[in-house]
Amino acid sequence: MSISALLLTLLHRIFFFATYWNLTERRSFSRLGHEVIQAVMTGHSLCQYMTDLGRKIIIEMEISVSFAGGAELLFGGRKSINVNISESSTLRDLISKLADKELTERRELFVKGDSVCPGILVLVNDRDWELLGQLDYKLCVGDAVVFISTLHGG
To answer: How open is the CA angle 141-71-112, to the nearest 5 degrees?
Structure first.
């Protein structure tokens, strides 16, 4: 196989790789191709280049998040949202992201430290988070997380 055919095959695989995952540096395909060709032509190890590129890639997944029992009022009245979060995230990371990016009202009614306030029930795929490891539960693709407020006046 000629060098140009090898490089073309390699670029095709890299483009597929880059399309499937989000590049943190948002390189364009032509820029990425140029970098690979330059690395190979200057004698750098292609394996090392791909390893370095892999370190710069963040794999994200979408998590369905719902709010009920009044918790939706803390999030602008939204009863459900989809949140993009990195693949290795835990419920602790999700709660932090929700508090920092999505919460619109009274933070103190949703978070306490790095967890939810007492009185907020958390379900993951209709199971109580206490059965799953609470904050340390590693989120998976397709998980549905529900936050239900049990805090009501009376």
So the answer is: 85
